[in-house]
Protein 1
Amino acid sequence: MTRTPNIRRGILATITATILLSFFPPNTVATVEKQALFRFKNRLKDPHNLLRSWKPSDSPCTYHGVTCHPLSGEVTGISLENANLSGSISPAISSLTKLSTLSLPFNLISGGIPPEILKCKNLRVLNLTTNRLSGEIPDFSHLTNLQVLDVSVNFLAGEFQSWIGNLTRLVSLGLGNNNYQQGLLPKSLSNLKKLTWLYLARSNLTGTIPDSIFELNSLETFDIARNLISGEFPVSITRLVNLTKIELYDNRLSGEIPPEIKNLTRLRELDVSLNQLHGALPRELGTLKELRVFHCHQNNFTGNFPPGFGEMRFLSSLSIYRNNFSGNFPANTGRFSPLDTVDISENRFTGPFPRFLCENNKLKFLLALENDFSGEIPGPYAGCKSLLRLRINQNRFTGHVPEGFWSLPLAKMIDLSDNRLTGEISPQIGLSTELSQLILQNNRFSGKIPAEVGKLRNIERIYLSNNSFSGEIPTELGDLKQLSSLHLENNSLTGFIPLGLINCVRLVDLNLATNSLTGEIPNGLSQIGSLNSLDLSGNMLTGEIPVNLVKLKLSFIDLSENQLSGRIPPDLLAVGGTVAFSRNEKLCVDNRDVKASEKHVLSLCNDDQHVHKNRSLDGTLLFLALAIALVVLVTGLFSLRYRVVKIREENKDIKKADGKWKIASFHQMELDAEEICRLEEGHVIGAGSAGKVYRVDLKKGGGTVAVKWLRRGGEEESNETEVSVSEMEILGKIRHRNVLKLYACLVGRGSSYLVFEFMENGNLYQALRRSIKGGLPELDWLKRYTIAVGAAKGIAYLHHDCCPPIIHRDIKSSNILLDGDYESKIADFGVAKVADKGYEWSCVAGTHGYMAPGEFSEVST
């Protein structure tokens, strides 16, 4: 009896479907949809040929990524995720009237969202996240069946949409990471009662959070990070008891985190970093037993850290650096939880260091620098084989380093500097084969530097200065092909400077000062073409200064306080000044090479003993000069191509800094890739066609730098990438006080970063329009004159002192930067050109209104 109604209903449904399909013959429907699909396909570029199954002879239901209705055979879904597709979305999509799912995330699709998509009334899922879509978002308010709308991480513009409140069936909404105009969070969001996932990060939102949003009781993820939201931390958020993830970082929130946070018992991730929050963290925060991620770095929190964190079972990431926490850090933290990342740096924690952070052998990143921890480094960390980065510098640690600490197999960075540690470096250091940075300066280490350091084939920076190391410098250091900085100053090292150092082909910074080194300066140091800074002062070196050192592009040299003899090469004197060669009794300088006011610092050479030699060599020198000039003229034609090819080949082989970044350094400076690339939208100081420029304050007193970010990948950005490469190639080899200094270039994770010196006073264009107290212009005539002279010197250096000359091609006021003393620096070499005799430019480059003299002339410069 019960089966009869079901059978009848099934027969009735079959008859109904048959009748309906008779009005729309299957062949006709399939033909229309097939044509639409092929128009859709033709708009796309498919480098991996994933759409090869889309054949005219086959049914669309067999196409890769296409789904159909089981009865009618009509197309209901297109899902092509992470397929590396580019091109644009065809308006023909509107012909797929039964389409309920259009999912094209993680591709390279550009252009606008076609308004014809609004004809797809049955659309339930529209997922276009992480593409390159631009233009304004169409008014989707009539697509009332939408349950998932995600157009985040694109380049969409216009005003933030208020019609969004009409889509009352939405469960997931992602509009973040686009280029909207500034606007408020629309109150109409409170209409979306079914919403569980809300992603509005980096949407240029201002004002406060409307209290009505906290009526979305189904909400599980609430992400409004990286906006301009102000006001106090919203207490009302604690009413949303289903929340599992709260992302409020990088806004302008103030106030304190309320004790009511304990109501969010399902919370797994909480990030309130980069705000202006203050006060003590409530103890109740430590009762959130489901918490996996807690980040509150760069706020103004004070007091003790909640002890409940030591009892958590699931905590994996804890980042609370740059606050004012004090007292003992909870001793049990990590004992029961699988910690992966811990950053408690730049606080005022005291007492012993917690023992259990690596208890579960998951810890990869441990950063506790700039605190006041004391006592010995706990022994359990010697077995923390998972560690990648360890920075516990600038504390008050004492005693020996645990033996196994030296042989961490995956560690890329060990920084124990600025403590009171004693003992020796174990030969086991040779087992840390992934190590790229070994930083131990300013401690009380002693003994010999083990030869096993030469096994660290990935090492880039070794800082052992200001300790009590003795013995000879290991010759094995010459095996370190990736080494860029070697600091051994202020120790008790003896013996010769190892000749093998000339094999360190990437060495930028060599400091062996204040030791007891003897012998001569190796002539082979001139073969290290990357060397930029050389400090051998305060030793017992003898012999003459190798003349070939002038071949290096040094920005710093100090050979003072040795026992050197002979003439000082004029080019080196110009770099270091007389002080860099002082207290070498047998060194002398030509009268014409030193200022009158500095002649008392160095002895003058006796020219008489050279007169006869000079006369007898006059004819030979003249002949050689003419011969050399001829050779230079011939080879000069090939120098540009050789230099560019060489630089690019070197860059291809640049060492990976931590498996994720590649770094090329051009100046003496300690850089941390993760720190450089942790950019904050609130610190944007400029933007141009090639990317944004951020101010970055380096930890550990590293000062401030400017970082230009360039997102890479795809055809549309190839030109911008070439601009970045051009800028790196040119600036990396320039040394002049009136040309902006490029410290390093970082490449990885789909982005490029150029690290420059920071200019406190911005650019000339801005400064000319600023006023000081009383309405007077910021730049008086003396400052303007100084700026103009400095800029002229920089341009003259580029045009006349660089070989071959460099033509900037875009000198304008916004490309002249000003430091704290209003010293001008030429910047933005994205369109610069290295002059090549015989090459004529076919077009004028740079900004309209300015033409480089070398381009105006008919003769190549």
Note: The two ends are 100 Å apart (CA to CA).
Protein 2
Amino acid sequence: MSANPFEGYLNDNEKQVDDNLNSDESLLLSTKELLSKATPSLEFCKISVEETVDRLNTNSKTGLASTEEANHRRKEYGPNEISVEDDESLWKKFLSNFVEDRLILLLIGSAFVSAIMGNLDDAISITLAIIIVVSVGFVQEYRSEKSLEALNKLVPAECHLVRGGQEAHVLAAVLVPGDLVCFRIGDRIPADLRITEAFDLSIDESNLTGENEPVHKVTSAINKETFNYDTSGIIPLSDRTNIAYMGTLVKEGHGKGIVVGTSTNTSFGAVFEMMSSIEKPKTPLQLAMDKLGKDLSLFSFIVIGFICLIGIIQGRSWLEMFQISVSLAVAAIPEGLPIIVTVTLALGVLRMAKRKAIVRRLPSVETLGSVNVICSDKTGTLTSNHMTVCKIWCLGSMTNKLNVLDLQKTKGTNFKNYLTDDVRATLNVSNICNNASFSVEHSKYLGNPTDVALLEQLSKFELEDNRPNVKKIHEIPFNSKRKFMATEVFEQDGSHVLYVKGAFEKILSYSNTFLNEKGKIEKLTDAQKVSITECAESLASEGLRTLAFAKLQMKGTEPVTKLTEDMVTDLTFTGLIGMSDPPRPTVKPAIEQLIRGGVHIIMITGDSESTAVNIARQIGIPVIDPKLSVLNGDKLNEMSDDQLANVIDHVSVFARATPEHKLNIVRALRQRGEVVAMTGDGVNDAPALKLADIGVSMGKMGTDVAKEASDMVLTDDDFSTILTAIEEGKGIFNNIQNFLTFQLSTSIAALSLVALSTLFKLPNPLNAMQILWINILMDGPPAQSLGVEPVDHEVMKKPPRRRTDKILTKQVLRRLVGTAVCIIVGTIYVFVKEMAEDGKITPRDTTMTFTCFVFFDMFNALACRHSTKSIFEVGFLTNKMFNAAVGLSLLGQMCAIYIPFFQNVFKTERLSLGDLFFLLIVSSSVFIIDEIRKYWDKKKAQNDPSYYSMV
């Protein structure tokens, strides 16, 4: 038998993924079911882009003409939102609390019996208590629901909207039919769209149709004469290849589309309307609390049954024993534990949101305090994500790595003087092979930071954006596998050209010629390839992200049917560009603090080894020996999971890594038993984010796929926010332990007090009403206020909580049992002392005992604000909610002993100031003893830093 009776209540490694909208039961409906409601996409898929534009009175290039027109349409169509309203009214929810709890029904029966037997005072008192107890429970439940509703609104859907010719990043809710939307790989489609532009566009519609293969999308209308309709006469969803459906994911390419359906007037909306409500799974902590509550309930019922049986055998009134037993059951059984846990977690998550960390799933809060490895992307998370072009190098005009055009050191220089033909060509490739766009509203370029930096440098050379002057035909988007981007265009003079940019080793391997300073093409020799490699590595060693640029004069005047990777060959190399992305100023202090707290930091980047090592050292990640601390993606490909698991403990940097490598890294770390947080922002990051204990996506740069796979979203994309979240997670877990200590010690004390008095044939020290009032204090505001105790920043000095640690540790059990014993001894002392003065039990005796127990409860709550720090260190005024809760509780207690109406309810009488002072001295003992314990533990910890972890 386990030494810990509560062993097994919590294994916080259970990771439940809440896939409400993606579960097979909810979305994979048959096509016939789905189309029982016709949606606009059914008609718009049959007509051309031009007809769509005319019908919706919009523009395929600039979108709707004005915001006024959009507002007019929003009044007609409503917001682009799908929401589920709760049909049950508040008063029905309130009344249901009276019939769903069997203990409340027993109390109602007790009040009814008391009324029949003529004990109207008891009947009224019990009824009043029932109303108060039910009201407290209802408020807690309502607060929990509202907190969770607030969490669901923290991550609103967003999209790229073009309106009046201006592109903006907006909430998807503002979309109306006729709006023009841009989307790219990783985006979730915000409404039903008629596609107007498609570049190698494939969309994953599996959550709508059940088909696993992404659907290739086109812009042409479906031929109504030749199309093979199904037996219902309706075009199946998967065959509407010019429609992008709301809620589906862009897997490849990019494009644009005109909104044809919003909200429930979409295929997704039709599914949503047919969906039955899905009950959210409980978190592991809630499940643990449920199990703990059931076991404590069973234990309480046994003790209460024993008390009732002994009382009846002793000849006590069966009605008295029945009322006492039911009241004890209401007070001792911690039915409010799961609700308070939910409220504490939800309020903690809302606090995290204010600090830029949005936790999408409550179970993640439990895991945050255990994270001991953080794997982070470099770009945009550890760095500022604001790229700046620093250096340009061309083989023709600069010959070696020492001869580089440094744009930072030559400020004020007329860069036009450096505009040789090879430099001009390199700038032109960086311009054409680019998807950033200029926003008049923001007066700046928007898009991928690298693309934005490449466009911003043009003005330094007095060059204009050349993209309006060429006709774009095809594009191969950049991804981490191919490591290049290619764009096929027709120039103004009719020439057919392919422009390519990417990792220098890739571009160099595809190049066999280069452009000299006079614009002439020359053969590329092996020696010149060495020079290019040396220069690229020199730029990388300075921490610069280095891209190579090249072009190819294509044959023929007709565009290729489809641009493929095997066509990217025999390129003409034009030059290299080195860009800097400086580390965020908050990152280094955060990393240092995490390392001191026992967290292993690993940086994962697609950059070269030299660049990665330079950045890692700048931000405080230890790289003592690059041979041991740095692992290249190529080496990673050659290693098995076991081999990686054996060496990963020493690795702090992964260079030239891909999103696919992240999955291997997480798997290897978890194989070693580590609790892993992994950051990511792309579509391919999703599997690793899902496998990690805490998947962290970026709020600004992250794709919708990454956000949905993650457990936490950083709204500022800043690594230091992870430190904040871990700190909050540790603090929340400590708070849960503290209010558990408070609740369980009070529950044990109340049960034991009545059990001992019955066993030793003493009158019951507390009557039914007094026990119910104690229950309100135990489950009410004081307990909840312990759940929102401000985070102690020193939690980061302690090592991460182990995966196998239980919530009721030996230290917690020792503390709550000791507290319960103190309360029992002190309360019995007062009870026996008062009875001894007159030899019989009087209202004064029970009033003194009752008030003593309540005072003990308040001092116990004060002691439970922190498990290891003295209240004088924590501060008396740092938790305003706690002070208000204790103040209201004490005010309620004064009402119970001084106001005649409540004196009748609780069977109390007035106490003198001397009585109250005496009770304060006795009850403060629980606080004083706990302060001594904390002091003793602190002294032990000073001599042995591992003391706290041992106890």
Note: DSSP finds 39 helices and 26 strands in the chain.
Protein 3
Amino acid sequence: MFKNYFKVAFRSLLRHKGHSFINITCLSIGIAACLLILLWVQDELSYDRYHENADRIYRVVYQLEVDGQIRQRPKTPLPLAPTLVNEFPWIQKAVRLGKANFLIKCKDKPFREEILFTDPNIFEVFTFHLVIGNPDTALNDPRSILISEDMRKKYFGEENPIGQIITLEKNHNYIITGVFNNIPRNSHFKFNFISSIFGYRKDYFNEWGVSNFWTYLLVADDSPLSIFEEKMPQFVEKYRGKELRDMYRMTYLLQPLTKIHLYSHLRGEIEENGDIVTVYILSAVALFILLIACLNYINLATARFTNRAKEAGLRRVLGAAPAQLIKQFLGESFLSALVALPLAILLAELFLPLFNSLSGKPLAFHYFNNLFILAGMVGIISVVGLLSGILPALFIMAFHPTDALRGIIKTGPVITLLRRSLVVFQFSISIIFIICMMIVSHQLHYTKTRKLGLNKENIVNIAVNHNEEARRIYETIKHEFLQHPNIIAVSASGFTPGRAPWNNNYWYKGISPTEYRMIGCLPVDYDFIETLDINVVEGRGFSRNFPSDEKSTFMINKAALKEFGWETAVGKYLNVSNDWKQGTIVGVVDDFHFNSLHNKVEPLVLYIDPPGYDFFSVRITPGDIQGILNFLENKWHELVPGESFLYSFLEDDYDRLYKTEFRLKKILTVVTLLELFIACLGLLGLAAFSVEKRVKEIGIRKVFGASVQRIVFLLSKEFTVWVLVSNIIAWPIAWYAMKQWLQNFAYRIDILPWTFLLAGLITLIIALLTIIYKTVRAAAANPVETLRYE
């Protein structure tokens, strides 16, 4: 029986080749888009789940409350991990992670690499496997180091690297004691080198005031996690002090490992994370594209309903039961979906490289090894087949058999409402996507053009990468750079945009010794303010004319002025981290954005500290940029031999802060074009339906002198109303969605009315062009042909 249904369905597809081609094309596009997004969503949801104890691993986050605002940071002090293990018996293991870039030498060849410093028990908490070496002892020696398989191939080829020496800066020799499998890409932190934390910054092991490490805990099954939060006030008072607990409501929180990638977006993340909101958005996009492809199928099916109604009427007269007719129409829709599936897979494979470039992931389909994708295919085919087939079947079944055979086909109000609703829904989604794309583009334009409090143009940042020699001879490097006629200024600092400054404890006169403010600090040189064109609003900038500036003066920004509660700052005394540095404030600078516009400008203290310089900033004149870069690189290698020349433009550094948003804009653009294409095909089907239904009316009107323009206007009027209704529905939804998205930015655009009007105009023009294409041919037809047999 089912074989007969599919045979009839196949003949129907061949009989109506034009409709079948459009149906299958749209379904293929919809299924392909759905498969690509499904693959991306699966990857995002899989982060860190490969660890055997993933559900029992938590990251510790510290939280402060400053002026009523909650501040959370993922970095914690080194003593925290062992202290938590001692205080909470259900915490089985604790692992600390810290990372830094080093110039290393292997076989006398210099390379720049990032090294992860961690506790030796990292293999007891995380599921990382050694292919060579013993995980129980590999990191017992503070001077031991492990490398990934990629690094083994890079440095040693097929040679056994165990026992080989890798030299870090300052001639510190580390012995390779193991090789581990490459870290899976779906890990929220990745590394190629691991060394023992006990060989790195021993001065921090008892320092609670320095938070530069990430702490992870392995807890027992059924651990009383609520007790952790309840006991935190006493814990903070015991180890951090009552004043810090009371003044800042300081506490520590636990983050589940599997939630970090999609739900954590704190300053100081170990790597850039994804966003669950983006997962929801793209999942909804996939659903809407698939749904619109199905609606398009339905619209095109109704466009030729007159002939199908006669066919259904004849079958019912000959004894076919209603259920059999429904099965026939479902057979056609399932067959269309099955034919569309291989084409969709082909399209998905063809566009996968483009999708990967948009998403920033090297994704690949492994159909037979990926149950998620296989289940998705089955689900998609089922949804497409049922949704696309059931409504046209019910639509045709609504007609009485004798009426259908006599050509008396009248649609009731419910069916008419359904048909109009489908078009309204399609164009509502199109308008929503257009508005979202325009607002995202406008916000990103705003991020590029907003005044940041500094001049980011024509600045080249050169990474020092903790190179002590480069710091020591900074003045020499600066002098040599300035010999180039197109180099205007050179300065140095500890951070560039997007990198979280250190937080230090600041005490000032007027508060008790146990009270202090935790504020970001930025090491700079004398010329930093002038090089970046930052405005000094009070006092003066750092100057070599004042010998004390290097050791005992500070500058602050206006946000810090407010944080301290002062009206004026010049001459005020500051003490940093228990006399590490103390002196007076000589100037206040205007607030400048050192992070993205997602965050408000935070308080910042600037001071001169040559050992803290990690970036040299060079202001150049526009023109021969490549020539200047060649000059800088040659001078760099001449003055700092063996050190890599790593540079970036400050403008690009700022743009990278919005990498996720730029990616979203590209995806929205592609999706909007796809959705508009499918929606227009659906509208074309309804225009065909309208023309077919009114062909005799058009002939009569032409006989009585109606012009082509008048007939086109008459046929287009109804569709124009539908598009206008779509705008009324889409505008508030798009406004709410974008209002929520813009909440991610502390500094954002206003949503203006012209955005909605322009989106409505674009869809109206596209809809009219689609309708006119179909109606002009009908209006220009010879009325004799349409009325020949009347």
Note: The first strand starts at residue 57 and ends at 66.
